[in-house]
Design goal:
- By secondary structure, the protein is α/β, with parallel strands linked by helices.
- About 35% of the residues lie in helices and about 15% in strands.
- Helix 2 crosses helix 9.
- The longest helix has 22 residues.
- It binds N~2~-sulfamoyl-L-arginine and zinc ion.
- Zinc ion binds next to loops.
Length: about 300
């Protein structure tokens, strides 16, 4: 089991995933999709209904590409807990779909934000003798380095020495491509600001299927509003937040051909990247309500 009254560290998250894979071995598999720069395993949990049917459609999620956004991995763990430990109530979400979740895609940065620098955002691979780290969400190879990214190694939005310069973004890229054709929905969890975002980040134009994506995102926002009263803004990244290129969101649609990709910027509870410990569980629950509503739409339409 895992508790939501603290922000869990990498080792505790890993132990929880291992525990689930042992306790629920017919429905859960934990794999490593690669190593971080500091040689931490990047764990993906595959959750199924255990019926043994191969190559089902997939819902793909990640969290924690930005180190300091601690509520994001917490919410991903909550989704995992609901799908695995509360399976009976959620089995409809696993009948024809498998879920693959990477709850902490940037563990080096996450640990560094716990031990050294609370506001660290990037990965941890050195770039120059003075500065470390690349913004993982500027490092994807689609309009890489064009907009709202920095070419300065010391900047918090440094796009990297090249596209996919980081082992963490390479691993996520490879996972996306390995699920090509199967993955229908991709969700990347971030914080903060209550946004449900879809492509594009690189241009204010909209993707050809934006009406479908928008409709599905609004189902999530409405479910959250109904459950807790929390407001989410829904729209394309460049139109409702800011233009930015090289993110995993745009890459998922353009290159991995995942038809419905979204970024969710979770609430701050008035404390930026530090929602109080007493709020973690309710924010994670509320996020789960939104994700469940979105997943139900996806399952119905794809
Ligand atoms: O700037 C970002 O990477 C995200 N916001 S955050 O405050 N969590 O850093 C927004 C990402 C939206 N998606 C794209 N830029 N494609
Ligand atoms: Zn972020």
């Amino acid at each position: 089991s895992i508790s939501f009254n603290v922000y869990q560290r990498y080792d505790a998250i890993t132990a929880y995933l291992e525990e689930l894979s042992k306790t629920y071995s017919s429905r859960v598999k934990v794999t490593s999709i690669g190593d971080s720069y500091e040689k931490r395993q990047l764990h993906a949990i595959t959750i199924t209904n255990g019926d043994g049917v191969a190559n089902k459609n997939v819902i793909l999620m990640d969290a924690g590409i930005h180190a300091r956004e601690w509520i994001a991995p917490a919410a991903a763990l909550y989704v995992i807990q609901q799908l695995v430990e509360n399976y009976e109530q959620n089995s409809h979400l696993l009948a024809n779909y498998d879920w693959i979740i990477v709850p902490l895609i940037n563990p080096d940065g996450y640990e560094y934000s716990h031990t050294r620098d609370r506001l660290w955002r990037k990965t941890r691979k050195p770039v120059t003798i003075f500065c470390d780290g690349t913004d993982g969400n500027r490092n994807f190879d689609f309009h890489w380095g064009e907009i709202a990214t920095s070419s300065h190694a010391c900047a918090s939005t440094f796009s990297g020495s090249s596209a996919f310069s980081e082992p963490e973004t390479q691993a996520l890229r490879d996972l996306m491509h390995s699920l090509s054709g199967r993955a229908k929905f991709y969700l990347s969890l971030h914080s903060f600001g209550n946004y449900l975002l879809y492509p594009w980040g690189y241009t204010s134009e909209l993707p050809e299927n934006w009406r479908d994506i928008d409709d599905i995102a609004r189902a999530g926002a409405t479910a959250i509003k109904t459950a807790t009263g929390t407001d989410y803004t829904v729209g394309s990244t460049s139109n409702v937040l800011y233009p930015a290129s090289g993110g995993s969101l745009d890459y998922a649609l353009a290159k991995a051909k995942i038809p419905v990709p979204m970024v969710m910027e979770l609430p701050s509870a008035g404390q930026q990247f530090d929602p109080p410990l007493s709020k973690i569980e309710e924010l994670a629950f509320e996020t789960w309500i939104g994700i469940k509503a979105i997943a139900e739409k996806i399952i119905e339409k794809y």
